[in-house]
């Protein structure tokens, strides 16, 4: 856009007559239409797989694999029905509930523990804070895989394998450094004068945290909560390692089980189950898209 | 009392904080009061400290120890010195997993960043529907990490499926990407590149910071689009580019779900999608070779760390921080 304006002013000068401005405006509109067409075409390619899977969920099982069609010619519901029946005699609702419990508890744990740690890092001064902050930042880049084996051994020795404890304990102990860092960045920007005002009103550190910092940090908490929910919902590795009983499986593992048992025979149900598993994430995304994109931009969170 | 409270809590910078402390806090401490701020700090940090010791630091030391042992979870670890590390370099599967992972990192990361930057530049100027476009391009980033999408990918690229049919209709016969060792890694790379939304959003934030005057000055000088991109845009966004590069590289080293789902946990066909983390998982949790897998984990830390250090070193040559001279 600026190219056009720039060339127009240099060639036409300040005394551009009315005809030129009109011409320029129509050229601008044409460029704008071309831009939108190009962007939409690109989007169509990129979102094709997502639309395809939704369409495929309603196609008869035999039509799915080879069909490039997005929408089913004669939509059927029996895929969804079979998917809801679940696997190994366990209803899909059980898996969905498990995922919901895990993701919900993870959100609570992560937000609470990260907020506490972030407040200390961002607003309090004490001996050793600098060193601990550096350690926290280092864990941001540490490959998670160096920890899984000893962590597994710890939980195995403690008799906690096949429970949700290994999947949740870390969330309540602020081990996700991304969110601590995100909240530290956010809390640092809050005006110190508010702390002082609260102090005059008789607040201690807890009072300042609870009455000043927590209410003002809500945007950072929301971002962390949404990301935690989606990441936990999508997580495969941790449940894969720690859970053995199908009744305790979250949706991701159930999907795996589904593939193993019905690999070639029931594509339709598998696709339908995928859509069901994706649904909460999509809903979260649609509800909070702006917040997610903003949180991403300001903090550099991974996707 | 009010004034001491104020001055005690006001320092915004560390330097001033130290000065304030000697002036106002020290006499209070002489009265035998413990450092309340310090106590509060440790209290608020206690979950993190516990988590760090119990779930990060402790396990790291344990895994370092285990990497020098033979351990199968059921009998006591047996010290074997450097045997695990020596064995790695004679393990064809391990070498294969290193190769696959390196190819994946070096191909997927640049492609993903290039795509992210291109789309970010397309979206940077305010247009109608800006929010919609941004969110829509970002969507794959969030959804792509799920098992569901990996499954969809497998369905789209398997033999005689959508992609195969589309390609053979224009005369390219691949025989399905999932079962073909020459293409299987390609489809995982495509899946990674498809999730370009996260770096794109960061690029967008960076591009917004570039001062318009620079482009206007370049216009006056008659610079073309390419020249403006090379001489203004790239240097100005180089810190963001570096940040994205570092983050995506570290993440790419750790990829797991996509290859696990697409190859059904095998890393096949013919080891073509045997990612490092997948092989680590197989060794640790299906073979129960915990010592060997720990050695693998430490080689990953070393390797990824080395690459990160290398990126940092090289960045001095091309990353430009405006108004941050000598730092």
Automatic annotation (TrEMBL), chain A:
Its main location: membrane. It holds the Pfam family BPD_transp_1. Residues 96-288 form the ABC transmembrane type-1 domain. It is found in: Cell membrane. Residues 1-21 are annotated as: Disordered. CDD domains: TM_PBP2 (cd06261). GO terms for cellular component: plasma membrane. SUPFAM superfamilies: MetI-like. Residues 1-19 have a biased composition (Low complexity). GO terms for biological process: transmembrane transport. It comes from the Bacteria. The keyword ATP-binding does not apply. Keywords: Cell membrane, Membrane, Sugar transport, Transmembrane, Transmembrane helix, Transport. It is a multi-pass membrane protein. The chain crosses the membrane at residues 33-58, 100-121, 133-155, 167-187, 208-233, 267-288. PANTHER family: ABC TRANSPORTER PERMEASE PROTEIN MG189-RELATED-RELATED, ABC TRANSPORTER PERMEASE PROTEIN YESQ-RELATED. Belongs to the binding-protein-dependent transport system permease family. This is Multiple sugar transport system permease protein. It comes from Spinactinospora alkalitolerans.
TrEMBL record, chain B:
The keyword Hydrolase does not apply. It comes from the Bacteria. GO terms for cellular component: plasma membrane. Pfam families: BPD_transp_1. It is a multi-pass membrane protein. Coiled coil: none annotated. Keywords: Cell membrane, Membrane, Sugar transport, Transmembrane, Transmembrane helix, Transport. InterPro entries: ABC_transporter_permease, MetI-like, MetI-like_sf. One of its GO terms (biological process) is transmembrane transport. Its main location: membrane. It is found in: Cell membrane. SUPFAM superfamilies: MetI-like. Residues 1-35 are annotated as: Disordered. The chain crosses the membrane at residues 39-66, 102-124, 136-156, 183-207, 228-247, 291-312. The keyword Thylakoid does not apply. Residues 98-311 form the ABC transmembrane type-1 domain. Belongs to the binding-protein-dependent transport system permease family. This is Multiple sugar transport system permease protein. It comes from Spinactinospora alkalitolerans.
């Amino acid at each position: 856009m600026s190219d056009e304006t720039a060339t127009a002013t240099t060639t036409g000068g300040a005394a551009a007559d009315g005809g030129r401005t009109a011409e320029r405006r129509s050229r601008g509109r044409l460029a704008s239409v071309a831009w939108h067409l190009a962007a939409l075409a690109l989007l169509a390619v990129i979102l094709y797989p997502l639309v395809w899977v939704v369409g495929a969920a309603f196609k008869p099982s035999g039509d799915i694999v080879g069909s490039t069609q997005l929408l089913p010619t004669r939509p059927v519901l029996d895929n969804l029905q079979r998917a809801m029946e679940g696997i190994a005699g366990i209803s899909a609702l059980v898996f969905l509930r498990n995922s919901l419990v895990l993701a919900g508890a993870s959100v609570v744990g992560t937000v609470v523990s990260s907020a506490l740690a972030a407040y200390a890092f961002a607003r309090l001064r004490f001996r050793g804070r600098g060193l601990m902050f550096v350690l926290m930042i280092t864990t941001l880049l540490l490959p998670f895989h160096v920890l899984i084996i000893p962590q597994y051994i710890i939980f195995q020795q403690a008799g906690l394998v096949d429970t949700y404890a290994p999947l949740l304990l870390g969330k309540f102990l602020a081990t996700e450094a991304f969110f601590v860092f995100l909240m530290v960045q956010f809390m640092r920007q809050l005006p110190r004068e508010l702390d002082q005002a609260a102090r005059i009103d008789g607040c201690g550190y807890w009072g300042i945290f609870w009455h000043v910092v927590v209410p003002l940090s809500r945007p950072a908490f929301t971002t962390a909560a949404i990301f935690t929910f989606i990441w936990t919902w999508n997580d495969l590795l941790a449940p894969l390692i720690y859970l053995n009983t199908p009744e305790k499986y979250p949706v991701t593992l159930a999907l795996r089980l589904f593939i193993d048992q019905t690999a070639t025979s029931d594509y339709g149900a598998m696709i339908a189950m995928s859509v069901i598993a994706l649904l909460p994430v999509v809903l979260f995304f649609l509800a909070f898209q702006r917040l997610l994109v903003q949180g991403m931009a300001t903090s550099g969170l991974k996707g | 009392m009010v004034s001491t409270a104020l001055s005690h809590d006001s320092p915004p910078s560390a330097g001033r904080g130290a000065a304030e402390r000697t002036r106002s806090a020290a006499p209070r401490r002489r009265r035998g009061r413990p450092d309340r701020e310090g106590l509060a700090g440790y209290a608020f940090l206690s979950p993190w400290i516990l988590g760090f010791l119990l779930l990060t630091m402790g396990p790291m030391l344990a895994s370092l120890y285990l990497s020098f042992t033979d351990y199968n979870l059921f009998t006591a670890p047996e010290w074997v010195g450097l045997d695990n590390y020596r064995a790695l370099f004679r393990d064809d599967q391990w070498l294969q997993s290193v190769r696959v992972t390196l190819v994946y990192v070096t191909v997927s990361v640049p492609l993903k960043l290039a795509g992210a930057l291109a789309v970010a530049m397309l979206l940077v100027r305010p247009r109608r529907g800006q929010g919609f476009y941004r969110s829509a391009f970002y969507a794959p980033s969030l959804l792509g990490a799920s098992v569901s999408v990996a499954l969809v990918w497998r369905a789209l690229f398997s033999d005689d499926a959508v992609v195969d049919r589309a390609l053979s209709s224009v005369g390219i016969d691949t025989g399905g990407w999932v079962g073909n060792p020459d293409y299987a890694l390609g489809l995982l790379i495509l899946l990674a590149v498809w999730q370009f939304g996260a770096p794109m959003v960061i690029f967008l934030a960076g591009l917004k910071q570039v001062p318009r005057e620079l482009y206007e000055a370049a216009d006056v000088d008659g610079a073309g689009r390419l020249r403006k991109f090379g001489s203004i845009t790239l240097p100005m966004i180089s810190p963001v580019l570096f940040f994205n590069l570092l983050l995506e590289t570290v993440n790419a080293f750790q990829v797991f779900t996509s290859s696990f789902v697409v190859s059904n946990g095998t890393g096949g066909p013919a080891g073509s999608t045997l990612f490092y983390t997948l092989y680590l998982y197989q060794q640790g949790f299906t073979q129960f070779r915990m010592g060997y897998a720990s050695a693998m984990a430490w080689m990953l830390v070393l390797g990824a760390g080395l690459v990160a250090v290398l990126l940092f070193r090289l960045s001095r040559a091309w990353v430009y921080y405006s108004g941050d001279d000598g730092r």
